[in-house]
Amino acid sequence: MQEQRMFELAHALAVAKSRQDVSAALRLFHPDMVLETPAFGTTSRGPAENEKVLRRFFSSFPNYDVTLHGHASNGDMLVCWGTARLTMTGNRFGVLPNGERAEIPVFIQFTFEDDLIARTLLLRPGDAVRPVGRLDGRGPAEAVPRAHRRRRSMTADPRVKDVGEIRTAHLFDMVVDLNPRLPIGSGPFGRRVLFGAAGGTFHGPRLHGDVLPGGGDWALFDPDGRMTLDVRLTLRTHDGALLHMTYGGRWVTPPEVRDALADPDERYRINPAAYYLRTNPLFETGAATYAWLNGTVCIGSGYLVEGGIAYKVSQVL
Q1: Each residue of 10-21: pLDDT tens digit?
Q2: CATH 3.10.450.50 residue ranges in the chain?
């Protein structure tokens, strides 16, 4: 197989995994595909086992994202290197996650059969140095021409620029009291439930006030239990201005905490690091004092509280 085709398949798998799209990933796999991840102590073979492993992985790392920076091949196999970004939820590995997002280097070895991926092996960085250096038959990595090494290590698109880290500033903390849920039922896009807002408050360094009754979350649940948020709220500031607040987002709950989440007396006692609830609020207002909100993009981290839900909302600078 040509190296370009190998990389096309590897890149397509990276895109599918970054979207947590299990079906798209499985379509790239050979029927006898072997998926090896020594770091997690897992080896799976065939569609059923691979699907189970992938779904379990995404339940632990719901916002997993990987970017491939380079690759090398000897004609029979391909090794790619890049960066993975992920946040762990649940207690799958015997430790309590802290909710922080990690960024780690990855080295992945691929083999192929019948124009499909036949095997992937997630290498440790120390293991990856040795095979990559000899893939072209030249011996150690230092024997590869410098121009060749530079081409392989560049980003996928040379137009990519370093724009610095994304910075945020605290906007406010918000608590929304909820009415009893209204199950709309299963439609063409999934199971829809309305979580109506009964009121609430918000407090921050630049604004504070009340959440007015009447809004809510027209939430959509997929077959794997993930919830997609569709929220519209009206906020009234302490000085009488009205703000229209909307946000989408994802709430992903690992299987091991779902029973506790279903218990109304226990659900708000669960450590928020055990699940993943993130949002992207936007605002609209005609009030001159708060017109700066019309050009603001925010992010939010949510957690359950007694009688409702709360968010820490930050402005993206």
Answers
A1: 999 999 898 888
A2: 3-153
